[in-house]
Amino acid sequence: MGTLKAILLYFILYQTWKIAADEEEWKSATATYVKETSGSIIVEGACGYGDLHRATYGKYSAGLSSMLFNRGSTCGVCFEVRCVDHILWCLQGSPSVILTATDFCSPNYGLSSEYGGWCNFPKEHFEMSEAAFAEIAEKKADIVPVQHRRVKCDRRGGLRFTVSGNFHFYQVLISNVGLDGEVIAVKVKGSRTAWIPMARNWGQNWQSNINLVGQPLSFEVTTSSRRTLTSYNVAPANWQFGQIFEGKQF
């Protein structure tokens, strides 16, 4: 009986530790919004996702200041954001939204970081869509204080691989990444090659100078939590540049 109690206690403590480890502490930042008739911030951006509605991120997208953007490695990461400490602008109860990092909010050192230069280093700032901002604060506000924390990304479907380039330059955009969302390494394999490490070009675009035309393609993706997922033969031998293929999901 003593052994059984010890096992149960260990299991409870482990689950408590695991939940605590999965949830980050809240951190302070600020947020503004960009008016867009489509409901999303932009249709292009520093992460390379293109049309954010097609990329499934839609209105729940955000541009990040350089402190958060981390030169593009944060692209695809999910943040929970809530408005705090402003009785006039924050909605009652401080509701939160889950945002995906899809763009870079450029600094403006010609303006004070307290007014206009909100994305100046080292400030942490979120540039949200108007629709998402309205879920946490009054739209009359120019800027609101927020708290944020990284959370797991809940995605529908598998990882998406958008192929571009030419016979001498092969590039793949990786999107719809679940769990931590942050891709830190990618490998590609043709039917006539070994696994080839790819280099980050910009955002979540990864490149290789190997000619892979005419070969079925497999991908190995590693996230910041050191989890690796392999999707075999995602693209058939007759794949074309500009096509999108779907693999497994974390």
TrEMBL record:
Fetch the InterPro entries from UniProt.
Answer: Expan_Lol_pI, Expansin, Expansin/allergen_DPBB_dom, Expansin_CBD, Expansin_CBD_sf, RlpA-like_DPBB, RlpA-like_sf
Q: Which SUPFAM superfamilies match?
A: Barwin-like endoglucanases, PHL pollen allergen
Q: Where is this protein localized, as stated in its record?
A: Secreted, Cell wall; Membrane
| Membrane topology according to the record | Peripheral membrane protein
Q: Residue ranges of the Expansin-like CBD domain?
A: 168-247
User: Which GO cellular component terms are attached?
Assistant: extracellular region; membrane
The Expansin-like EG45 domain extends over: 44-158
List the keywords (alphabetical).
Answer: Cell wall, Cell wall biogenesis/degradation, Membrane, Secreted, Signal
- Family annotation (Gene3D superfamilies): Expansin, cellulose-binding-like domain, RlpA-like domain
Organism, per UniProt? Salix purpurea (Purple osier willow)
- According to its UniProt entry, what is the function of this protein? Causes loosening and extension of plant cell walls by disrupting non-covalent bonding between cellulose microfibrils and matrix glucans. No enzymatic activity has been found.
Q: Does the keyword Nucleus apply?
A: no
In which broad location class does this protein mainly occur, judging by the first location in its UniProt entry? secreted
Q: Name one GO biological process term.
A: anatomical structure morphogenesis
- Keyword Acetylation annotated: no
Top-rank taxon of the source lineage equals Eukaryota
Q: Give the residue range of the signal peptide.
A: 1-21
Q: What is this protein called?
A: Expansin
Q: Which CDD domains match?
A: DPBB_EXPA_N
Protein family per UniProt: Belongs to the expansin family. Expansin A subfamily.
